[in-house]
Amino acid sequence: MPINTKFIKELKRIRPIVATTAYDSIISKLADDAGVDILLVGDSVGTTQLGFDSTIHVSLEMMIHHTAAVSRICPNALVVSDLPFGYSYDEYDVIFHACRELIQKGGCSAVKIEGGVELAPTVKRLVDSGIPVLGHIGLLPQQIKNLGGYRKFGKTEMESESLINDASALEKAGCFAIIGEMIEPDLSKRITSSIGVPLIGIGSGPYCDGQILVSNDLLGFSIQKTPSFVKRFGTISNEVSTAFEAYKKAVLERTFPHE
Ligand code: KIV
Questions:
Q1: What is the DSSP string of the chain?
Q2: Atom of ligand 1 lying closest to residue 112 CA
Q3: Superfamily of chain region 5-252
Q4: What is the pLDDT of residues 202-222, one digit of tens each?
């Protein structure tokens, strides 16, 4: 049975949720075969695959293109696609249209949107219209121009209260789960126990209901600096370099192809 949002919600009380990002068919198939629960077609596609320096350059068309590549393998995992940069919370119809395109043309089952309390009324309308929403609080990469850089969230009591309110508002609005990025571990523990839907952490410590890592980071398949919280579970870049060097050598030395 393909994983649905109801199942993800129920996992909160059963076992940790395993999530990663995916942008193409091959990585999606391999992650799916390994039993990952959620494949997020993140707007991190901009930095991991498309050579941009941040996610704000990623368009809806790019998201649809990559979401369709992931959905096409018909994974068992829940495919979630990111609403890219540039959608104002006030323009409900525009947001609804974008989410509909991601679902109808991209083939995903849910949409992830960055934001807290201010986003909750929009989430409620989307969920009421049949669009499942994965929340995203803490560090919001699409706000990087306002933030001025990456940092941990929840160091002060005021910021902690505000993040707890964000999580609670998103739960009430109908999010089936929430991603918490770069949240102080003690605070992510508080949030995890204060909401009824799963908090899936990234750089937020061990006390969340699940974890998500960018696939290129966890695979060691990246040409960028990886965040300090990342654990590399593979060294794919080394293997790719070795294979290309061996191919080049074989062609130059005429040992490939054989007659
Ligand atoms: O775009 C992305 O990959 C994300 C993850 C960091 C959660 O939003």
A1: ----HHHHHHHTTTS-EEEEE--SHHHHHHHHHTT-SEEEE-TTHHHHTS--SSGGG--HHHHHHHHHHHHTT--SSEEEEE--S---TT-HHHHHHHHHHHHHTT--SEEEEEBSGGGHHHHHHHHHTT--EEEEEES-GGGHHHH-S---B--SHHHHHHHHHHHHHHHHHT-SEEEEESB-HHHHHHHHHH-SS-EEEESS-TTSSEEEE-HHHHHT--SSPPPTT------HHHHHHHHHHHHHHHHHTT-SS--
A2: 8
A3: Phosphoenolpyruvate-binding domains (3.20.20.60)
A4: 999 999 999 999 999 999 999
